[in-house]
Amino acid sequence: MNYLKQSALFLGLVVFIIVCSSESDNVFDPWPIETTETLDSEPAWSPDGKQIAYNHGGAEIWLLELETMTSQALIPGSCPDWSPDGKRIVFVKNHDIYVIDLETDEETQLTFWGQCYYPSWSPDGERIIFDTITGSEIPPDSAGIWMINLDGADMTQLIEFNGRQPDWSPGNEDIVFVQAAGASAPYTEIMILSVMDTEIERLTDNVRDDRHPKWSPCGGRIAWESYGSGNDPTSGVWVMNSDGSNQHLLASWAGRPSWSPDGSQIVYAGYNEDSDTVTLWVMNTDGTDPHPITHPEDYQ
Asked: Pairing with 70, which of 7, 41, 95, 147 sits 20 to 30 Å away (CA)?
């Protein structure tokens, strides 16, 4: 069934989406210990492979230079995503979508309403998709996934109500996103929207919470974070083929995956048992050689 025709069915899910959203909506939960401090999350690999933009402390975007392994603060905000040419970053600040030019430091505000999160740049560099949640500033039928031009014009709603966390495919034809599994289901699944014909395909079908899907550079695979109830050791970063086949765990107690431009590695938010913190980790795409690349002492 076309998802755009299901709005009545999912009216009851609006409360669920609100509960899952706040200014700190960018935190993976749960970790093995409730006292875990999330230092670094939301990594996004630059198109040239030389930098990683990420959220530090839940409130700032930092840049990690991979050649020197040094980090510096860029701008207040969260949810960074690079433009295809690597010259700009789209991000969230004060619940709105902004773009910063990395050469001039000029900021452009694209949205002026609602509570907006998770922007994703189109591969052709011309448009940005993002999600909104229902709040006091916007009517319920405005929540969902939207598309906007870089000049702020032609804002179009693609998915209504409970569509969240979109990511544009490398081929510019499909959008992977998160959707609540049903009117009474307290968990989410991974879906794909065909931009051309608005058809929806469900990729995951389980009783786990599946979130934050990211396409591989070639478009053949999707990484995402998935977790069950309690301290489930299979909670972490998973990967599957783009048709939903071959789903398997890559890293436990991990979230927010982002692929390297050459498709050989995945950067993610990983758990440090010795310090009970979350920082950035990198692993090969088969799950081997996982290791942290930012550390708690980096900020002392």
From this structure: 95
